[in-house]
Give the backbone structure.
Amino acid sequence: MRIFGIDPGSDRTGYGCVETDGSRHCIVTCGAISAPPLSTFPDKLLRIHSRLTELIRDCHPDCVAIESLFHAMNVRSALTLGHARGVAMLAAVEAGVPVVEYTPAEIKRAVVGYGRAEKPQVQQMVKLLLGLASAPAPHDAADALAVAICHAHSRRRGVGAAPSSVEGRRRPDTCDGDPERRPPTGGRHYRPARS
């Protein structure tokens, strides 16, 4: 399965695509989209939409996972972020790709094992899970890869399988129907793939 993750932002939107078989993940591409500093807000949104449209077309993902807005420091920043999320979702929907959303706490819990993890912890776990020599940069790209990894882990556990729906998610106590196997809870259970 190929999952395209998006970390929306009006100044810089992170993206990252991973190929996964459910347990092993391989990076396809990652980066960040930004507009020239003096661009107007509508021009920034157009740039985000245009670039994401190209990337989604080139990557051919099975699904787009996007970080959802859960709170903001003020109304203005929430509205700005909402616009960026909107054009990101539009790019995915126009491509005919299902969209799923995860809160920052869900993403951190799925990748690090702790819902209040710091950005460097998320970057380190993304590096380990993808077998990279260094943490992805900028941090927006690492965050987008974390969103994609979150969906891969959630699908493996049967969570978030319904596109564009946060309601009705369940947290199973077992893995793949086997009551003896518990889902991993964090990086301390990570085992690198053997060659």
